[in-house]
Structure formats: structure tokens, C-alpha cells
Records
---
Amino acid sequence: MKVLVTGIAGALGREVAKRLVERGNEVVGIDVRPWYHPPEGVRVVQADIRKRPAEDVFRTMRPDALVHMATVTHLTHRSRDRFRINLGGTQAVFDHCHAYGVQQAVFVGRHTYYGAGPDSALYHTEAEPPMAVHTFPELSDLVAADLYAGSALWRYPAVDTSVLRLCYTLGPLRQGTLAAFLRGPRVPTILGFDPLFHFIHEFDAADAIVLALERRLRGVFNVSGPPPVPLSVIVRETGRSGFPLPEALLRPLLGRFGLPKLPPGALEHVKYPIVIDSSAFRRATGFTFTHDEDATMADFRNAG
Amino acid sequence: MIPASLIPLPTNAEIARRVSRIELPWNRHGVDPYGIDQAELARLFTLLGFFYHRYFDVKVYGAANVPARGRAMLVGNHSGGWALDAIMVIASAFFDLDPPRLAQGMAEKFIQRLPFLAWFTSRIGQFTGLPENAVRLLEDDRLLMVFPEGARGTAKLYKDRDSLVGFGTGFVRLALQTGAPIVPFAFVGGGEAIPTVANLYKLGRIFGVPYVPVTPWGAAIPLPVTLQILYGAPIVLEGNPDDTDDVILGHVERVKRRIASLITQGRELRDGKRKETELVLT
């Protein structure tokens, strides 16, 4: 099978590409970032997914399947640009899937879709609507991209589309939202709150994405690994120290004194849990994780 | 309330052992998939043990009516200006059942907004009262504790201490949907422990709580009085969870009457008008 992976140069994208090649697939990747020495069997086109060269990849290479991972967060991109990449890019790749006969598409989204808040349920299921877009506007483009990708199920029924809502990833690659939050030796926490964090090992996440492709999933699925862990335990087990501050004090300090720069809405994610129920995905694919929460935290800790 | 882990209190080793006997899917850190923490529970119950066994004189009748395993809903009345009733029922399910069980309440939404209280309640399994949480916990065969009077119930004044205010209907639909038996219970004596003379709603708004109860001595610190918990025999409701309100209200009325009867019996026992052998808990 010929698989096109957008966002291939990211840490998770590379892991997915390696697995696809190992399993006998031909892999083409698109990314604005370079991947200088991809393994044999992987071809990387350095291009923007919204531009003509990306469409040319669809037209000339005729992939059978798409794994769309080229979405970005507020941690790396400021608002306007982010909105264009996330929503414009998702629209473009699904339109190309339809136009160039791609048979299946996997959209790799995020569990933060559900939002965090004091009145949200502890385990989220796929049918729930996004609840916290108003408190965290920086998430709205990712939520929109998720819903737009899901709409491909009825707009382009010939393309077997699956939307994966992946929980945080953690592990030796040290990439992603949670890894960025845990980067420094001192992790800012909010005094009096200790939410559960749901994470999966990076390698298990890559396995799950490949599995979704191989099982030709259709529909929306939460993807998680081991049960969630309180933030205080993550801080301890990854060798960090917590830096608890009252919320009123933490807000003006963000982005200063070595604390990460976060939009105000992100603080909700440090106060309240986002935990997902991934039983539908496990039933549909038979997925099992191989790294439990302790191994995952240890891998993250020991990598750097 | 501050999490027990921040209070330098010793953990009673025997209570810690009892906590480990609660039949929940603990991982090797002693944490369950909902984030309930054995260490935090052990500290909590060490502290609660003092109030449950020494400070108050808690008398429990019909504990055998609570199923030892499997899903069930404890449904009862509010008595006392704040959640003293819930705390004592949690203690009762832990100390008086064998194996001990963790009663999981459906907390008011404001609790999750308050620093420390949000943390503490999350670690001891007292989650926000949302239908999604309730269904999930019951489907996981847990013991759910429900006060269908809601916050209106804790706001009862001293003179209304043994009355029942309007019941919600959600708990009946929940029982029908999940097939969970309802164990009705009465909590008697909360009004004597915390005799509320007024509720300050405007002051409450400043602190982010629904109201602040006031007793003749000011703060709502409970008196060391006798408290009674009477568990009735389980009621298994049959019907469609999507029935119209008038059908559901029939079930609600049945449970409410059972609880009212248990309250009356507890009150009569307290006043010496009835003997313990004359209790009708079935």
C-alpha cells in the first residue's frame, strides 16, 4: 500500500513512517520541516500542505491511504498561521483524497477536543461535543479541524475516514504538548488542584495509528493507553519538582522566569482533567498498549 | 477543607490495611482508574475514624441491607447544614461493611472550582454530580451515594430538620437505566449537630459556595451528638428509564416514602418511643 503521511518530520510522524515501511508499505511524506535522512522506503517532499506542490504529490504519486498529522498547537504557532494550517490544511488534504481516489484517511487529532472544566465528566466518550472552546479559544481551530475531518465520513463516503482523538503522548522522543509542559526542572502547577493526566507512550501511539490504518477504521475514536495519572505523580516520577502557585499569581507570571508561555485557557488543563474512554477503539482494533504509565514516565525521564 | 496529605496526621496502619481491602481495581501505586488514592483514603479515614467513633455517637441500623458487592445506590435525606451526612455515610460504608466499601457521592458543581477541595474530593472519589459520571460508576459496579434533595436539602433550617424537600427524578432514571438496586437510608441527628438558624446566601457568593450556614454559636461547627443511619432493604425498580415524568414520579414517591418512614423510625428510637427490635427496615 502507498501511504501519504502529512507532518511526517515530527517525532510521532517519523515513528509512524518507520512502522509503515517495516510492514511493507511505500511511504511518501509531506512536511514544511526537513527530514534529512529518512529510512529507505520513505520519500519526503518538503512542502506546505495547502500549496500546489502538496497537491502534486497526490496527483503524481496516487497514494492509497492518508495519515494526516500536520496540525499544530498554540505552543509552536501564533493564532492566524495556526488557524490556516489546521483548518485550511485539513480541508485541502481531504479534498485531495476525494479528487485523487485515496481510499482511506486517518486524521490524528487530540483529546483536548473535549476541553477541561469543573463540570465536565471524568471519562469522555466520542459522542460528546467539544465543551471548552469558549474558555480556551486557542483550541478552536483544532476542534474545527477534528469536526471537519469527521464530516468527510458523509461528504466523501468513498473514503474510509477515521478521526483519532489521541491523548497526550510521552516518552523518549520528548515531543508534544505534555513533554513541552514538563520540559523544565520546575513544573508550574496550580495550588490546590491536581488533575489526572491521560497519556500514552509515543511508540504505542504510533502503533495505534498504524493499526487504525490497517483495520480500515471508519468513524471517530478516542485513543489512550494506560489509565490516567495525577499531575503530582507525573512531576515526581519524571524527576521534576512541582512549583505550585495560586492561580491569581501564576497567570501574570506565565512566560517569565523560565515558566512556559501558555494562553490563559491552558490553565484549565492544569486544573481539571481530560480523561478519555477508548474502549470503542480497543474493541474495533484489538489494540493493547505495551508501555504502562511507569515505563512511559521512566522513558521520558531517562531520555534527557 | 485541606487535603489530608497536607495535614501532618499519622495514618493508622490498621485503617490503611482496611483501605487496601476496598474492592476497587487498584494499580501498584494504590490508585484506581478514577484517580482515587489509597494513601489519601487512609489518611481521610484515620481522621474520620475519630469523629465517627469518638466525637459523634454514630448508631447504624441495617448495614446488612447494603450489598457487599456490585452496583447499588444509597439514596437518602440531607440533615445538617453541610455535608456532614454524606461524610458519615462514607465512614459507615467503610467501617461497618465487610468488606469495606467506598461510597461515592455526587458532589455539587461548585466544589470542583474551589482549590484544595477540588483536589481532595477527586482523590477520595467524590466526583461532580453529572449523569455521565453516575452511569459510569454504576456500570463499574460501584456504590453510589445520592441525595435527591440536592443543595436545597442541606439548606434545611433546624425546625425542618426531619422533613424532606422536593426530590429530583434523575436518580430513578439512573437506577432504571443501570439496573442498580436503591438502598434507601435515613440520616437522623444532623439537625441537632448543626442546628442551622439562617443561611447567608450573599456571603456564600463571595466564597464561591451556595450559602454559609449559621448556628446559634455562629460557625457551623457540629456538636458531639448522637447520629443515626438507618439502611432500608434494597428496592429494585422496574420500568423504562425513558418513561414520562408522571411514571417516574411514582417511583420517586415510593422511595421518598420509604426514606420518610426510616426517618420517623429513627426519630422514635431517639425519643424512646420505639425499641431497636421494633425497627422495620425491610
Note: Residues 8-46 of chain B form one domain.
---
Amino acid sequence: MYGIKGISGKVAGFFRLSGELSYFAGRYFTEVWKPPFEIRELLHQCYNVGNRSFPLVGITGFIIGLVLTLQTRPTLQEFGAVSWMPAMVGISIVREIGPVVIALICAGRVASGIGAELGSMRVTEQIDAMEVSGTNPFKFLVVTRITATTLMVPVLVIIGDVLALYGSFLIEHLKGNVSFQLYFNQVFDSLEFSDLIPATVKTFFFGFAIGLVGCFKGYYCTKGTVGVGTAANTAVVAASMLIFILDFIAVLISDIFYEL
Amino acid sequence: MNKENAITPVFPVGKGKEDVVIRIKDLKKRFGDNHVLNGFNMELYQGENLVIMGKSGSGKTVMIKCLVGLMQPDSGSIEVMGKDITKLDRKALDLLRADIGFLFQGSALYDSMTVRENLEFPLRRHKERFRDRADTETLVLEALKSVGLSHTTELMPAELSGGMKRRVALARTLIMNPRIILYDEPTSGLDPITAKEIIELMRIIQARYRTSALIITHDVDCARVISDRMILLVDGINYAEGTYRELQRSADPQVKAFFK
């Protein structure tokens, strides 16, 4: 009896949370078109999300390229298919590994940061102070951050992809003496617009999800400093889960288009 | 502990009904089963310093948050300068809020902004209000000078002491040239000397800017020095009302407990 109650409570909690998150997203789409537009704050947030995440994303992307090539090379060598390496790495990085891994890194770096920052502003009454001063805190804090992550995560993914491909090229160059031109010609020959467009479009959704969850958790933070920690932590977990769910949906949709 | 035990309210000398700047009638607010405000009534007169005292959890902060529209009451009316704030739309409420300064308990300075930016922030939404006044720079310096901190413009809130933060928060309130100032525990968390300085500053400000003030405090010294009139809030109702001296002489055990 208790078990059923517990499960139904959790299911109800999940649907309530989903409803609240959907309402929060709806409020974003209502507010984003209304003036005043906080351009200065938006640029500041773009700088925060983009510039400050760049070193982490760059290093991670580069290492992914190195490791992927090093791990795959012996197997391809066994089948005499090393010449397929640029195409294989290119497709896997551009279509799947790059967007998902970079988005997960951004979830860890950005969603937790936003959750903790807004959470701390909530518990120290800074958001209330903004409201009392006549500024709409949702517009100033939430709309700018969600827009910034939606715009900057795709840019970070492109940078990460480029560095991953460069890392892969370095290994190929060292181990197989492949030239830069040959390597990248093979990469781009293997890629089509049908690979690039869905992969790029889904990164906007990943960015939106990261900003949305981070802001939602921080904006409604309660229970003092413990609540701030919880907001940061749950923001990362929820954003990561959302990224996987969105990726699954994106793959399903692009598969439908492939079949047409 | 019922209303019959309460001391007869004192009508402030020289003030008539036309001078009322805030009128709260039968205010009720509950959170689940917790009835925080049970029909609170209050009038604040032009130029008056009204102190509201009560134990923790007696509903003081909830009342003051309802007063600026940060919380919606369950029932009752709140008139600020003749306007019922529970019925105002967002734009009208923001305009009215420009006339109300709010000093938060923890100062609520924006951590990511300098002192100058903290003071400039409320001006952004009310530019038309300051068309005839000096430029922003002069307003900021003027407000900081009035709290004795004109040298702190480029400092971050983290670089200020507790007392300095409270002063800067007061300057941020004053920059809007409000007609009413709401103080939420203005001396809490401060050492006795700094607390006295803040109380003195409140007196100076009241004399210079001719504001009406609603002060929520536990600090009996603060109430003695600053109050024209006091209300004791017990279990969500105005239990006793009068001048400091009248309440101090009260034989009611609940009232006496505050002055021990």
C-alpha cells in the first residue's frame, strides 16, 4: 500500500514539475518579445556562457578527437579500412558525439552556475529587490540567460567539433602521415547537409534546455544556502537528462526525414 | 490574546484621515494550515515613523511583502497613497513602487554589480521621473554622500562591511526620492554601535527627505528612538497600538514581554 502511494506521489510530483517547467518556458516565450529588451545584459550573459566555457569546451573537444582516433585506429587497421577514418570520425563527431558531449559539458558548467547564481539571488532577496525597484526580474535575469545559452551553445558545439576534428587529424598525421588537406577533404566529402542541419538545429534546443532548467531551479530556489546547492546540483542532473531526451527525439525526427 | 485585550490605538497628533499614505484593512494571509495574518489593520500617516514589533513568525515580513506586491494577500485591502495595490496591473504597480523605498533585512545588494551600478539600477526603469533632476552620476554621488559613503562607488558589495552594505542599500532606496520607506529589520545582524549609526541615519533621512516610514524590528532601542507610534503584531493581528511610552507602561503580559 505504502509502495503504491510512494510511486503515485513520485509520478504526481514528476507531472507537477513538468507542468511548472512548461509554464516557465511559456512565460519565457511570452516575455522574450516584449520591450524593454535587456541587450546589455544579454551580451554580458553571452560573454559569460561563451567566453568562459570556451577553454573547457575547446580542450574537451580536442581530446575527444584524439581519443576517438586512437581507440578506433587499431580496429580499422585490422580490417584494412584506415582510409575510412576521417569520414567515420567526421560523421560521428558532427552528428552525435560533438553536440551531445559539448552540451553535457555546458550543462555542468553553465546550468549549475545559473542555478547557483539565481538561487543565491533568491535567498538573499536580490530578486525581490529587483522587483520592488520596478525591474521585471524574469525579463532581466531569466530571459537574458535562456537566450544567451540558446545562442551560445551552438557556437561552442561548432568550436568543439572543429577542435575534435583537428585532434583526430593530428593523430592521423602522426601515425599515417596524412596531410591536412587530404584529411579534411575526406571529412567534408563524407558530410552532407542532412548531417549538418539536424545536428546544428538540435544544439539550439540543447542550449535552450540548459538555460531553462538552470533558471527554473535557481529562480524558485528555497531553503536558504542548502537550497542553493540543491538548485545547482539538480539543474545539472535535469539539464543532462533533458539533453538525452531531446537528442533521442532529434534522432527520431531526422530518421523520418532520411527515410522520405 | 484577543483584540479586546489590545490597548486603544492612539490617533497621531495633528494628523487627519486625509494624511493617510498607507491603509491596510482586514489583511489575511495563510500558507497551507499556517494562518500568518488574521485580519491585520494599519494606517500610516504622512511624515510618521510607525514601528511594527512582533515575535519571529508573527507575520511582519509577510505583511510588508504584501504591501509592495511581492506577495498576494488572501483577502483584505492595501491602499498605498489612495491606490489599492492588490488591484493594480504590473505597469501601475511599478510606477507606484517608485514612491516606495524598501530596505531589505540582508541589504539585498546585487552581488555582481559595483556600488555605483547598484544605485543606478532602480533609475533605469524610471528615467522620466528624473528628467528634471541632475544626471545619474550626480544622483548616485548625492545618495552615497547622504549615507556617508561617497568613496565606495567602485567597490563590490563583497568588499563592504555589514554596516556599509546597509548604508548603501539605504542610498539605493533614497536615490528614487521615495515618499514612503519600508524598513525590514534595519538593525538586525549589526553590532550595537553600527546599529545606532543606522538608526541615527534613519532619523536624519526622515528629517531631510520628509518621508513616512514603516519599520519592522525586534530592536526595542530602535523602536524607542525612531517611533512616533508602535503596533505589536501577535498571531497575525494588531494586538496593541500606541506610543513607545504607552506600550512600555502596559500591564498586559504579552506587551510587557517585548520590553523586558
Note: The helical segments of chain A are 2-31, 39-78, 85-123, 126-132, 137-176, 180-190, 193-219, 224-259.
